Amino acid sequence: MDNYPINYKDPPACDNYPIKLGRNVDPANNHPGVGYWLNDPFGGHYFPFSIPNDEDPKAFERTGARYIHLSDDKESLIGMLGKGYPTYGLPLYLLEHVDEGNYDPPPPLSLKQLENFTPDSPLVPKIQEVLEYLQDHRLTAEVARTKQLLKNQKALREQVVALYKTAEPLERHLLEVDMQLTSVR
């Protein structure tokens, strides 16, 4: 392992990578910046991420994303060919492809297990620490998606409670009006 810190201002060039570099970008400085990593098929975090070839947009060819990073919401990957090229998104899921014939889905989480992913759970820092240690971006995306769904579920519950609180006085008033109409008849 290298004992020197990463030099983000002048990252190393990867001349043996099979993708041609942009026309107006110096090959030695094609790295898009902090947060992106080289999507090397022989590296530890390779994702088969096919994007349009921006070298020749009229050719309708697809090529592998050379640099990728995890999006801010941690639910997708952002890929590009290098500095100065457009970015493309790829949603991440825990299971990439499911064969219908022999797929045995994992058991669903219990309500008690799901409570560990709520923002007020005491296990949230530990879960984040484990995710950072594992560096499994698919698992991180699923956990982020679960947290977002739990947050939305809580917001929906609060809205339903507010609707019931609003409807209760109206129901009482409607009952009073109905009783007055009945007494008039």
Characteristics of this structure?
two-stranded antiparallel ribbon; 4-stranded antiparallel beta sheet; single chain; alpha+beta; 185 residues; 2 domains
Helix fraction bin: 25-40%
Number of extended strands: 6
Structural class: alpha+beta
Rg over CA atoms:
26 Å
Q: Please summarize the sheet with the most strands.
A: 4 strands, antiparallel
The shape is elongated
Count of all domains:
2
Element string (H = helix, E = strand): EEEEEEHHH
Strand order of the largest sheet: 1-4-5-6
Overall mean pLDDT: 80
Uncertain spans: 14-22
* Number of H/I helices: 3
> Span between N and C termini?
91 Å
Residues in β-strands, percent: 5-15%
* Oligomeric nature of the chains: single chain
Tell me about this structure.
- It is elongated and about 90 Å long.
- The protein is an alpha+beta fold and 185 residues long.
- The longest helix is centred in the C-terminal third of the chain and has 48 residues.
- The strands form two sheets. A four-stranded antiparallel sheet has the order 1-4-5-6, with no helix packed on it. Strands 2-3 form a two-stranded antiparallel ribbon.
- The protein is built from three helices and six strands; from the N terminus they run ββββββααα.
- The protein is 34% helix and 11% strand.
- It folds into two domains: 92 residues, no CATH class; 78 residues.
